[in-house]
Amino acid sequence: MSSQPFRLSAGGLIDRTQAQSFRFDGKRYEGYAGDTLASALLANGVRLVGRSFKYHRPRGILSAGAEEPNALVELRAGARREPNTRATVAELYHGLEARSQNRWPSLAFDLLSVNSLFGAGLVAGFYYKTFMWPAAFWEKLYEPLIRRAAGLGRAAPHEDPDHYEKAFAFCDVLVIGGGPAGLAAALAAGRSGARVILCDEDFRLGGALLAEKREIDGRPAAEWLAATLAELASLPDVTIMPRSTVYGVYDHGIYGVVERVNDHLPVPPVHQPRQRAWRINAKRAILAAGAIERPIVFAGNDTPGVMLAGAVRAYVNRYAVLPGREAVVFTSSDDGWATMRDLAAAGAKVAAIVDPRVEIDAGLMALASRIGAQVFAGSVVSSASGGRALDRVTIRDASGREQSIACDLLAVSNGWNPTLHLTSHQNSRPVWDEAIHAFVPGQMPAGLSVAGSAAGRFSLAQALADGARQGTEAAIDCGFAAKAELPPRKTDPEGIALSPVWRVKGGKGKAFVDFQNDVTDKDVELAAREGFKPVEHLKRYTTLGMATDQGKTSNIAGLAIMAELTAKTIPETGTTIFRPPYTPVAIGALGGHHRGRDFRPTRLAPTHQWSQDQGAVFVESGAWMRAQYYPKAGETDWLTTVNREVLAVRNGVGLCDVSTLGKIDIQGADAAEILERVYINGWKALPVGKARYGLMLREDGFVMDDGTTSRLGETHFLMTTTTANAGKVMQHLEFCHQVLWPSLDIRMVSVSEQWAQAAIAGPKARAVLQGVIDPQHDISNEAFPYLAAREITVGGGIPARLFRISFSGELAYELAVPADYGDAMMRALMAAGEPHGICAYGTEALGVMRIEKGHVAGNELSGQTTARDLGLGKMMSSKKDFIGRVMAKREALVEAERPSLIGFKAVDPSQRLRAGAHFIAIGKPATMENDEGYMTSVAYSPNLKHWMGLGLLKNGASRIGERIRAVDPVRNGDIEVEICSPVFVDPEGTRLHV
Amino acid sequence: MRIPCPHCGARDAQEFTYLGDANPKRPDGMEATEAAMFDYVYQRDNPAGRFRELWYHGAGCHAWLVVTRDTKTHAIEAAEPAKPTKAGAAA
Amino acid sequence: MSDAATKSDAAMKPGWTPRSAWAGILSEGSFGAKGPAGVTATAREGLGIASLIVAEGGDAALAKAMKARFGLALPSTPQAAISAGRALVWAGPGQWLFIAGDRGGFADDLQALSGLAAIADQSDGRAVLTLSGDKIRAALAKGCMIDLHPSAFSVGSSALTSIAHIGVHLWRAEDGPNGAVFEFMVARSMAGSFWSWFSASAAEFGCQVTIPRACRVGRG
């Protein structure tokens, strides 16, 4: 077989000097630069491209554009394999690899096509009806079976090796579509000086002009196209984006665009993304997306070789490919006759032209006669046959007489639908235009207008005029002066008369409405019989229009058939609307940079390098990376390390980074007042130089956050928040200030990032600290008692803040220095602590020690606990208003039964406790009714040498000494525990004050 | 959506955090009945149409805004600072 | 308000070496596409940065002091007033960032403003990059939601926004030899993630990184 046997010897917009070899189902072929995969396959005589979704019917290529429902392939191999790629828009490149989908074991011989023989069982509603019972069969039997039989290609099993980007752009005028209307619009707007972006999904601009032999001002349209593109390229504020699909229209002039930057190459060049998802902000936009041709529903209309008539012209004129050598044209419009003309001009035999209309334009009749095509007026194609490749069509005339004609191509035209999808992305419903027998855009999204074929104005002259006018208007809307009006363009005549025929009944075999989802006219009939008549029901019951092509070629026929069955008009029947995305968008493009390590930002403390140098194991804490523990050589499990760290602190001294705590600087005459209102406890009496623990509630009475706040001056406080809630608390304070009490003089700013902060804890903490702070500062117990908070200096004059606060229950300080000195502070403390055996400890040891002390943390501040639940009810001041005051006193929140915080230890001290275990009375079944609360936090105490837990238990405080079960069904745990004080170590707190 | 921040200009909605109805006024907690506070905390209208709602420009100027928006069309009629500014005060 | 950087190194105990927010993140040289760098990034180090917040109606007095002492006009919209060695950048209603090119005398500057505004030193809490180059807008478009076209973002314009989920304060300085110059300021803890985004975005155009001497101080 000669190479590219169906390639025409001349013409087309392909580069014959650049041969590109590719593989389809493992077989090697050749095409040219400028081809799509579809045109290259057709050039090689490959008609059978895939198997259908449900019946595994052989399928070919229906269209030459984005609407393609049949020719879906897996593109590329290995980790780059991409399923469900439309061959009609896949740009050919050297080395392209594609495979057909949904066939097993091979495309030509597909065992599962028996589905088609049992087709009666797979009608609409099949899934709903058949697999109802028993439910357990779904997971084990039905679903795997269905997934095998009906599928849409395979996703790649490996991580995508390419990278993707997101990007933002701004313009005055966005033009969607680079055909005649779009180009005219971009030119008119661009000449006025407006910032213009023109997006076209194709790799070559020109739209329908590329597929047609047309004239503008008496010259080939290609000349106008070249001149227009050249002028657009010369305008500095006009950006042309080929290979870019506008997939969604969002509120306030936001447009979603996916740019296929490097899909036309086997591997993107280094440093370049495969795709880029743009968010374009446009003051105005013009939709010039053209139109999509409509097929006709008849038996065997899915046979490879049945193709849209406009697509046939595109393959002949743009790609110089003959989709068949012996053609029949079946058209209900004058437009289809142009296909007869172009096929004949390219050397194909057009055996017949079939038109359901009785009256045909005399000029068209003369054309057919010249070409030698037999005209069947008042007739239809009742069936197409041939299985894997079309070999014959049956033509039926008005009297019902049938005649069979051999052919390998059937070009079908039933008029065009405006590509109005984007106009309905904000819920606007298209409206029926009887004059053109098509839906046209209804109410337009703000800022968007529609030009040319997309508006149902199908002629080239209309497209050019529409574009120029709307481009000018859009620029004026954006404040630019219009240039002199563009003269109207003269175009060659074109026929647009149309009398659509939606389906031909009575043929042998299945007649498809929706090719991609395998919905037939019989399915629509079934839906009508079973009462699923409204369009939204029809859609969901039959899955019509629910495939990845969103029914671009099928919805209208489905509606028309339903209209016919219910004796209604199409506008009475109505239409479903379209949602973003217009065509499928890879999730990778939407994620862009944000995958893996960059899924979200990571925050590193100013002491991070030091922790790393100490061998820390880090844990994610919100966005932060915090040192979890610091294993030493020879320590093989985390518990050994944590036990060592805890004992080091309790018996000597430890050092822990606490830089991640939120820090809010609050100044102003009403600084104390705002604290009074957001915290449950009192603040006005707090002396300068002192810190205090504070607890804040949400307005619904539940705990929001806690932390210590220090008074640095009469009108100057420093609030600390938990690491996790820093942003939330700042937002809350801003709300309180700006919305609730705007008259207060408070000035707040986050200083979390400015200060590196370390906790130095343990009996030897003071001794260590003294080696670091400048000598003039007295930190003796008398001069700097528990809860003292002062500005000091370290390292010879570096400003610092020292707080005597403790989370561990030991003598402890927190020292803060400007973040640049955070690293130096940790190293200085380690050096000063060396003689005292100082030990770096992480969040795990911190957690153990706070549980030993019964301090609440994130597990207890769950958003479902009140101050009272946590044993902190007495902190609530009765003398002032504060956020949450009223709601915290609700009956259900103060009843005695409500679970409250208490301690637990296993009756058998060797047993491990588990957080999340529920408390059930001994001897009672573990049911919801018997649930008495749950364990919030557990840890192993190396001091007590057993596990300990904190939990919320009904009547908790009054049940010390009782025994109860801690049931953990997730891990099959069920152990007996003793209720005890939540303070396990140093209940008198004497260690704090030494 | 794009929200026209009165301080920063039109910005993408992802810079903002939504709170909801801007109309409820917080009763004084020393005097309010539980019922009044309950209404303030939980009771919200959910109108289809014009709605005054609170948005926080957390990724921008940290201002709380009252945005008047049509919940059916998302058309934004106005966006004003929740904190009243006196004449001559900072923008 | 005291400030670390006003202390001479001699006065400080050995070992108290400051560590730059960019230490361990930036490395000098070029990366990405070969050829002339389309994008340049210069680390800013040793800046004095403080947030200033005025009480209701307090802007007039601050404006007067700023004008008198530094010749800077207090912006009331998202703008940056820039003079030799100092900048005053709008940071929200009634809020500004006051920035000095170095920390020598910064404490005195702040002292002079005390009483006019609530002042909080942020010098160590921010990481700043100067970004420029022929392709800088194309690189920034990969995450920046602000329109940086010259017709929309002139010299002296500023914005608070977020890029790649990272809060960013940016402003346009005077044009340089390669056209527009942007200052980008992020929270210190986010510097690494910001650079991860920026370097990925700039690689396509080739990027030249410059680290001034002062910035190289510190372990990293």
Characterization of this structure:
- The complex is a heterotrimer of chains A (994), B (91) and C (220).
- In chain A, 22% of the residues lie in helices and 27% in strands.
- Chain A has 24 helices and 50 strands.
- In chain A, strands 8, 9, 12, 13, 14, 15 and 28 form a 7-stranded mixed beta sheet that branches. In chain A, strands 41-42-43-40-34-44 form a 6-stranded mixed beta sheet. A 6-stranded antiparallel beta barrel of chain A has the order 45-48-47-46-49-50.
- In chain A, helix 9 (334-345) packs parallel to helix 10 (362-371).
- Chain B is mostly beta strands and 91 residues long.
- Chain B has a single domain (2-81), classed as Folate-binding superfamily (Folate-binding fold, 2-Layer Sandwich), CATH 3.30.2270.
- Chain B has one helix at residues 34-42, and strands at residues 2-5, 9-12, 17-21, 50-56, 64-70, 76-81.
- In chain B, strands 3-4-5-6 form a 4-stranded antiparallel beta sheet, with no helix packed on it.
- Chain B is globular and about 40 Å long.
- In chain B, 31% of the residues are buried.
- Residues 87-91 of chain B have low confidence and may be disordered.
- Helix content of chain C is 17%, strand content 32%.
- Chain C has a 7-stranded mixed beta sheet with strand order 1-12-2-8-11-10-9. In chain C, strands 4-5-6-3-7 form a 5-stranded antiparallel beta sheet, covered by helices on one side.
- Chain C is globular.
- Chains in contact: A-B, A-C, B-C.
- Chains A and B meet through helix 20 of A and helix 1 of B.
Offer a concise description of the structure.
The complex is a heterotrimer of chains A (994), B (91) and C (220). Chain B has one helix at residues 34-42; strands at residues 2-5, 9-12, 17-21, 50-56, 64-70, 76-81. With 91 residues, chain B is mostly beta strands.
Tally of helical runs of chain C: 4
Largest sheet of chain C: 7 strands, mixed
Structural class call of chain C reads alpha+beta
CATH superfamily grouping of the largest domain in chain C:
Probable tRNA modification gtpase trme, domain 1
Q: Span between N and C termini of chain A?
A: 97 Å
The helix tally of chain A amounts to: 24
The average pLDDT value of chain C, as a whole number, equals 91
Query: What does the oligomeric state look like here?
Result: heterotrimer
Distance between the termini of chain C: 30 Å
Global outline of chain A: elongated
Series of secondary-structure elements of chain C, N-terminal to C-terminal: EEEHEEEHEEHEEEHE
Please give the CATH class of the largest domain in chain C.
Answer: Alpha Beta
Whole-number count of domains of chain C? 2
How much helix, percentage-wise, in residues of chain A? 10-25%
**CATH architecture grouping of the largest domain in chain C:** 2-Layer Sandwich
* Uncertain stretches of chain C: 1-10, 215-220
Low-confidence stretches of chain A: none
Strand order, sheet with most strands of chain C = 1-12-2-8-11-10-9
